[in-house]
Amino acid sequence: MNNTIYLDNSATTKPLKEVLQAFMIVNEQYYANPASIHAMGVEANDLLIRAREQVADILQTEAKNVLFTSGGTESNNAAIFGIARSNTHIGKHILTTEIEHPSVLETVKQLAKEGFEVEYLNVDQHGVISLDELRAKIRKDTILVSMMHVNNEMGAIQPIYEAAKLIHEMSRAALHVDAVQSFGKLAVSFRGEDGPDCISISGHKIHGFKGSGVLAFRKAIRWQPYALGGGQEFGLRSGTVAVPQAVALSKAARIAVETLNEHAKKYRQWHDEILAQLHEYGEAVQILSTPRGASHILSFSVRDLKGEVIINAMQKRGVIVSTSSACSSKQTKTSHVVEALHLDEHYKKGVIRVSFGAHNTAEDIEKFKQVLAEVMLELKGEIK
Amino acid sequence: MIWKEILIRYGELSTKGRNKMDFIRRLRENIRHAFADLGHLHIRTERDRMFIAIENEAQMQTLVAGLPKIFGIQSFSPVAACEKDIESMKKLAITIMETFKEEQHTFKVEVKRTDKTFPLESHAIQREIGGYVLPHFKNLSVKVKKPDIELRVEVRHDATYMMAQVISGAGGMPVGSNGKSLLMLSGGIDSPVAGYLMMKRGVRLEAIHFFSPPYTSQNSLEKVKVLANELTKFGANIRLHVIPFTEIQVLIKEKVPSNVSMTTTRRMMLKVADQVREEIGALAIVTGESLGQVASQTLESLTAINAVTNTPILRPLISTDKLEIINLAEKIGTYETSIQPFEDCCTIFTPASPKTKPKLEKVEHYESFSDFDELIERAVKNREVYIFPKKEEEQKQDKFADLL
Fold first, then answer.
1. Which is higher by pLDDT, A25 or A193?
2. N or C terminus: which one in chain B shows less Cβ crowding within 10 Å?
3. Can you say whether the dihedral through the CA atoms of B29, B30, B36, B41 is positive or negative?
4. Which ipTM did the prediction report?
5. Quick check: A37 and B336 CB within 8 A?
6. A293 and A165 fall within a common domain
7. Which site among A19, A26, A28, A37 would you substitute to test the B interface, given the most B Cβ atoms closer than 10 Å to its Cβ?
């Protein structure tokens, strides 16, 4: 698969060489338990502190508000369960959107079973919520609003900073932002009083490792521990801290933020080029992503064709793309995000997601466009 | 950039007589020292205020963030400047007042026209600017006597200067203006706070710590180094004297009955500290003792401990409650470090029931069977001295730089 062009970076990314290298060195030299009191433990802990501070700086919070987790799903679960269950003295009302990642949707569903009241915000055809609807649905007893920054299936960007302001003005609710798809692609931080209260990040979406993530808070908030044991991670998440993963994530995060502008410019250009080509197919193709969305994700749908067919056809020619999301791609039913966009029935089955990453080059995109043209030609007979 | 300079108002200094110029010079040097990273600062001093020239926005931000930590400053104000024409002045006034748009305020415009050739008179300028600013901000209302905000405008020969914001300083007196003392730094919550309070009164500090390996770990020493380093934030270098104390402590444990061993330990520490104090030319010893907090801090204990020296012992926390001390520690940022749970030399060999009312004669009697003086001299001689802020810290950070 040497010449394969990988355009499924929203599912996961290939780790950067320098991140891999740091991971190896930490495992070889600083493998001691950071909770140990001997010199090696102290050294490992110093390194962990530095890694944590670096993430805190990027997010504009303090190191004591940064928790290393096993990934986006754990961060989302922990944030939502933790905030909801610790604030029942204020209320039991939770708001989220209908296009969240399953790690949010399933968690709030569980809370609904436990007696919490969950309401969902609708999205328009661009996949964006309405602040007016948010304003109308916030109540005095709302304790949590969970909103993804960038949608993983089609790249819609939610107005999280405006939402944060509104939420803080109108209620005591905390805003949790699932920034798994946006961190390293857009500016993500707490921005003092004006930002979200809690942010989830995943390592493997930013050229770090699977099995690593961050849950960060703007300031210490009412929250409860969810992994009990030796009291690591400020007593909130027990378990020996994986220093190499933490360092790798911290490094990947730094590089992602430092190269953000450079990549964003490239991605935007590729996005535009591919869009231009897709427009040529007229009715045969419906584009789900919008120019206002994130530049690294481009989703479109081919009329009456199954996504799988296109993916296989492209794969045969050495280009890897995916159906709307890796998590839902093995299920046969239409994704909840696609449903939320109210697409015409003809376009629901064939959603393709192209997502760019740091390793992609302009040649990759040329090849993709060429292969796309070939595949469209080949499948022409099947597009009604 | 609109900023021209920062105006600094002195604290208590203004009331001092003939020594005033010394204090001002000291404050200027402390400011230079604290902002050494910014390169050479242009500082102009007057009898009641001081001006730092601003060259760029980043410099301005560093100064505004750091000045509130420096003792001897009552308050300070960023001063902006613009061309000497009324339109530019109006625009600048709006930019400055943006800072206050969050809350309701009363305000007035105060004008001084040093350059009498400026076509508008003071009152006219006041009317023009006030009349322009007021409709721009819904939250402002005019009040002539004691307004919340005074927008001060001064038309000088070179430009028009303007300021409104008054930022509180740390108060107190410039560190170094009240001599030097030796702080007994244990690693607990109290002693860094005691050090901070003395620095606030203008005292330059050196610190002494008693280290008893292997009974106390490297961690506890690292913690004390971090604390010493944190105290340097308040505008001065700190030298930390680390005393090898194991030998003395072991001898005390062997020779002195356990219920007075704690008193003897403190007495020996004070003897060591007093010798170090003399060597470094400090005038007093500072401790974090708070009356009645623990057995060694009852009046009887303090008397028995204090008997080893005539040197003034300054105890700025003597009448404060533990909770007040914790609040202060949190405020100055030493609390998180202090509560790390490492053994220190005060917590090892602790007797089950130390005497809260030790008798001086008895303590002296028990001590008389051993020759502590020789050990004390050796401990003083073999001490290690560290200087903070520490370069070694930076090297350590570099070690990880490639990994992060």
1. A25
2. N
3. negative
4. 0.79
5. no
6. no
7. A37
